[in-house]
Design a protein that fits this description.
heterodimer, A: mainly beta, Ubiquitin-like (UB roll), two-stranded antiparallel ribbon, 1 helix, B: alpha/beta, Rossmann fold, 5-stranded parallel β-sheet, 13 helices, binds zinc ion
Chain lengths: 66, 309
């Protein structure tokens, strides 16, 4: 199970996948890679990195006040 | 993913238009180099002892700007002071002030907070109440924007600033270019890029150190440097045409990475070709501040709102 927290929407979801490419997750949530920063277990990763079973992922939308 | 530069560390960001990956250390260097390019081109690094006043809103962009400018201030021998305009927006401003103060305390950066209520006589919350009761025609964001610009320029000048730095990033600028074209305001497209192009007395030249920085880079930079930015939205924020343009540009950038930066490059070419095109600058008959009108926007709004005080 992968725990995903979307900061702007203040909600958490759980994925049953054992492995997913970050970009696939981003698009699944309705964003493009430039619109969010993905933090996996506290570390910033790129959209081409993989997320595994047991990971905790935070999705931080970049569109917020200057 | 590994860093394309050092080929050693794990990447934190991918540049899709150049297919490049950067690790945290290489990314920070590239980010800061892009800010220094603006400072160099704007003439900030020429000579020594210049004063840069940084307009701080408390969000990631303005705090990043303050942090980067402070980081290189000793090497390049200039001074930095943070300036925050407290517009009196409760449930918002008190938090963003905290962010600025904690960054300034941590790095020993001087700061100044100017209260709109003390200076102008009312707060943005008060103007918003009037707007809701339909007694004034200006939207809260207009009132806020006009007085923030007015007070930033006035106070930066009185502080002896050579430059006023703002946190506008590449995404903000690309949106602004389209927004102004859609509103047939070509002058606003060409009056400034990374520096204000028209230098008139009493107007402090404005620079945008994050001009070549994507909004995403700004978020990553703030995270990596533990910048205490508040991810809090102004309660009066409106989702006008800018929000639509942001979505539209993000979609285009997704389909064709590099679209946003091409808009900025086009603007620079237009600026080169339209150097003679100038708005006549006047000085407000009431307050004497620079304006394109006989009576500046700030005084126009103030005259109307004062009737309700
Ligand atoms: Zn590297
Ligand atoms: Zn005036």
């Amino acid at each position: 199970m992968i725990r995903v927290k979307i900061i702007s929407r203040a909600k958490e979801i759980e994925l049953k996948e054992n492995k997913i490419i970050a970009e696939k997750l981003i698009r699944k949530l309705g964003f493009s890679p430039d619109e969010v920063v993905v933090v996996r277990n506290g570390e910033v990763i790129t959209e081409d990195d993989e997320i595994y079973d047991g990971d905790f992922v935070e999705i931080i939308p970049v569109a917020s006040g200057g | 993913m590994r860093c394309s530069l050092c080929k050693k560390d794990k990447a934190v960001i991918k540049y899709r238009h150049s297919n490049m990956y950067l690790c945290a250390d290489c990314f920070k260097k590239v980010f800061e180099k892009k800010a220094l390019v603006v400072l160099k081109r704007a003439g900030v690094l020429r000579g020594s002892g210049k004063l840069i006043v940084v307009a701080v809103s408390g969000g990631k962009d303005s705090l990043n700007t303050l942090y980067v400018l402070h980081k290189y201030s000793e090497i390049y021998d200039y001074d930095v002071i943070a300036l925050l305009i407290n517009e009196g927006i409760s449930g918002y401003r008190e938090y963003t002030i905290k962010g600025m103060i904690s960054l300034c305390n941590k790095y020993k950066i001087e700061y100044k907070i100017v209260s709109m209520e003390n200076e102008i006589g009312f707060t943005v919350d008060f103007a918003t109440e009037l707007y809701k009761k339909r007694k004034i025609r200006w939207k809260p964001c207009t009132v806020c924007g006009v007085f923030r610009r007015y007070l930033l320029n006035k106070h930066a000048r009185e502080m002896g600033a050579d430059f006023l730095a703002t946190g506008h990033n590449l995404d903000d600028e690309a949106q602004t270019i389209l927004l102004n074209i859609f509103q047939d305001s070509l002058y606003r497209v060409i009056q400034a890029d990374y520096i204000s192009r028209e230098i008139v007395p009493k107007m402090v030249p404005r620079i945008k150190p994050l001009y070549y920085i994507y909004e995403k880079e700004s978020v990553v930079y703030a995270l990596l440097n533990k910048i205490p930015a508040w991810h809090i939205e102004c309660p009066h924020a409106q989702y006008g045409m800018r929000a639509d343009i942001r979505r539209f540009l993000n979609k285009l950038e997704d389909l064709k990475p590099g679209t946003k930066i091409n808009l900025l490059l086009s603007r620079e070419k237009i600026i080169q070709k339209t150097k003679s095109l100038k708005m006549p600058m006047k000085y407000c008959e009431i307050c004497g501040e620079p304006s394109t009108h006989e009576i500046c926007r700030a005084c126009q709004i103030r005259n109307v709102i004062n009737k309700f005080l």
